[in-house]
Amino acid sequence: MKACGQKALEELLAGRLYAFTNFHAALQEIHKGTHRPYPCGAGAGYLSANAAGDFYACHRLIDDPQFAMGTLLDGPDEAARARHLKAAHVDNAEPCRTCWARYLCGGGCYHEVSRRGEWDAITFEAGWSFVWEPT
After folding, report:
1. pTM for the model
2. What is the largest CA-CA distance in the chain?
3. Of 63, 67, 98, 101, which has the highest C-beta tally within 10 A?
4. 14 — phi, psi (to 5°)?
């Protein structure tokens, strides 16, 4: 993030646009004081279904039993959704709950985290390094 900020500053001072939308979005969120306790609406605002009619938190998580959220016949499994959202909230998830940038990142893509692990997924997904060093 620091390198990205430095590059943006150089470009803007030279009178050029720095067209990296993730960086702009992060700056807007910081400026507004908003926060993202989740990386997206998976399991909350939307579900995805496989060909058999089974619901999952996201299209990238289809057929992953850890993210099963009900069926077309029985409807969404509200208990599974609630468990998912409670565990995934950045104030509850490790190592997110102690990270200074948790409300910018939201904890990283669930698919990437489940495949790569939390830190590797966040670095892969955002390409940013949120390293906190005590002074």
Report:
1. 0.70
2. 59
3. 67
4. -85, 0
